[in-house]
Input
Amino acid sequence: MATYEQVHADITHIQTMLEEQKKNLPEGHNMTSATANQAAGVLQMLRNLTGLNHEQSMQMQRLVLAGPWTGQQKGEFADVLTSHHSTGALSSSPRRQLVESFSAYLTLEDVQKLSDPQHSLLAKIQVLADRCVSVGIVRPLEKSWKPIMAAGIAAGMTMQTHERLHT
Output
């Protein structure tokens, strides 16, 4: 059974290799097949990973979410890592998750949606909820909602008093 350190190193090497290949291949070359093959291997490594503590799980999520994967592949990776939490597979995982800061997890696309006056408050809250799940925050403590919402507000999320939740 591979350790966290081994899997982290292997995934780092795979991602670096894919990024280097992409840089060195002729323009227009499609990396879809190579990336899909490597993604299948990474997915299996993540499924086989056991005994992670909460911090290791978050670090692993940050690693794969920063990689050269498609949105769907990143979602699959996050789902596997999140399933460790929901099934209790993480040996020292707390029942509830404390979030002290959340802004760093927001992508440029998230910030654009949060600051767009055309999106409803419900759609903006959904952006925050989706980002929570994608980074493995699936059971936040009640006091964790404050920094999550503060990150949305700092990104431009507003609601006028006359707005409705679903408009």
Remarks:
- Residues 87-94 have pLDDT under 50 and may be disordered.
- The chain is about 60% helix and 0% strand.
